[in-house]
Amino acid sequence: MTLSKTRSSFYRRLYVAYLVSRGIASIPAVTAATGMPRRTAQDTLSALGELDIVCEFEHEEGARHNIGAYVIRDWGPIDPDWVAAHAEALRQALGYPPLDPALTQ
User: Buried-most residue among 25, 54, 102, 105 (CB within 10 A)?
Assistant: First the structure.
C-alpha cells in the first residue's frame, strides 16, 4: 500500500513521538532507529506541536552545547496507548527497520 503524503507525515509524527516516549529521544537516536535523514528527524520533532503533542528538549545538566534529550510532556488528543499498540504497524507502513532492542535500554 502506498501512503499519501498526508498519511505518511501523520504516521511519521506518531512513530517519532512513540520513539521519544521509549527513550529514543535525540536526533542521532531517531535517525539511527528509522534511517530518516537528520533534517527530516528535526522537522518531525518540531512538527509534533501541530498534533498538540508537547515535546520539549531537555538540556543535560552540566553538559555543554545541545546535549540532552527530547521529552513528551503531553500527548494532547493522541492516545499514547493506541500509538504504542500500533507502533509496529506504523513502522512497517513507513518502511523503517525493526527497532534494535539496544536502542531502548
Answer: 25
